[in-house]
Design brief:
This protein is of the alpha+beta class and 261 residues long. The protein has two domains: 152 residues, Regulatory protein AraC (Jelly Rolls, Sandwich); 99 residues, Arc Repressor Mutant, subunit A (Orthogonal Bundle). The chain has ten helices and nine strands. The protein has a five-stranded antiparallel beta sheet with strand order 1-8-3-6-9. Strands 2-7-4-5 form a four-stranded antiparallel beta sheet, with no helix packed on it. Strand 4 and strand 5 form a beta hairpin. The protein starts with a helix and ends with a helix.
Length: 261
């Protein structure tokens, strides 16, 4: 086994709450970096800032200047992997844009899948002769899964923060009454700045966009005869059927009850 094969280019980092941890990397890293947060939070960025929180993966291209800053109240626990540009696995990132950070919000099943792969990596014994092969296979599974998911969810809004928000909303449980303040926090913007940016990019306010999503999902459920109209409000964060019915009619020209006739 070569010395390169013995190098651990992955790991699990635990930074406790109240720790002082700021890491500025003016020249970036020499390889593709994957950050997978499992607990706590940190901020990341330079030209743009993002929150590193659970169920979010960040892929950083080589040589990109950036920093990390810990959220002292929560600490930060995350898995990481760095794939050197000369490694054959680096070619798997070919579809991602160099010079730009890629973010991926993960559904629960996908989160468990990636966490499983990282846990398997951490259990590898570097003294075994099959270490290099097993490490390469697990890293390949992680990269292929992440890149494939990013490729199928990439949007073209022109702003990574809005792309991130749209993907989050399309996979979110809308019964939890998501508001603009929460969305702004996820992309490290003030609420007023976020609303202005979202509206200028998407042509509608965040709340109107959430309304549209709720009505689209409601229409799909009605078309499949999965629910009855009076079950819809609770599924999408509304307490009153009459009000939800008016919102639905605004987009479909009829109430949910009329849609079924």
């Amino acid at each position: 086994m070569s010395d390169i094969d013995k190098i651990k280019n992955y790991g699990l980092m635990r930074i406790l709450p109240d720790a002082k941890h700021t890491d500025f990397r003016p020249e970036g890293l020499s390889g593709w970096t994957i950050l997978f947060t499992t607990k706590g939070a940190a901020s990341f960025g330079l030209d743009e800032s993002f929150s590193l929180v659970p169920q979010r993966i960040v892929v950083i291209p080589p040589d990109l200047q950036h920093y990390y800053k810990l959220n002292k109240a929560t600490g930060w626990i995350h898995y990481w992997a760095v794939i050197d540009k000369s490694d054959r696995l680096a070619s798997l990132f070919a579809s991602l844009e160099c010079g730009r950070v890629s973010l991926l919000e993960m559904a629960p099943g996908f989160y468990r899948e990636i966490k499983y792969y990282f846990r398997q990596l951490m259990r590898l014994d570097s003294s075994q002769h099959v270490f290099s092969m097993k490490k390469s296979n697990l890293l390949e599974n992680i990269i292929l899964s992440i890149v494939s998911a990013i490729d199928t969810t990439m949007l073209v809004t022109g702003d990574a923060r809005i792309d991130q928000t749209i993907f989050f909303l399309k996979n979110a449980d809308l019964s939890s009454c998501i508001n603009s303040s929460e969305l702004a926090y996820r992309v490290c913007l003030s609420e007023s700045r976020f609303i202005h940016l979202f509206t200028s990019v998407m042509g509608v306010s965040p709340q109107n966009y959430i309304e549209q999503l709720a009505c689209q999902r409601a229409e799909q459920l009605l078309a499949a005869r999965i629910v009855v109209p009076k079950q819809l409000p609770a599924l999408f964060g509304y307490s009153d059927y009459r009000y939800f019915s008016k919102v639905f009619k605004k987009y479909y020209g009829m109430t949910p009850l009329e849609y079924l006739k």
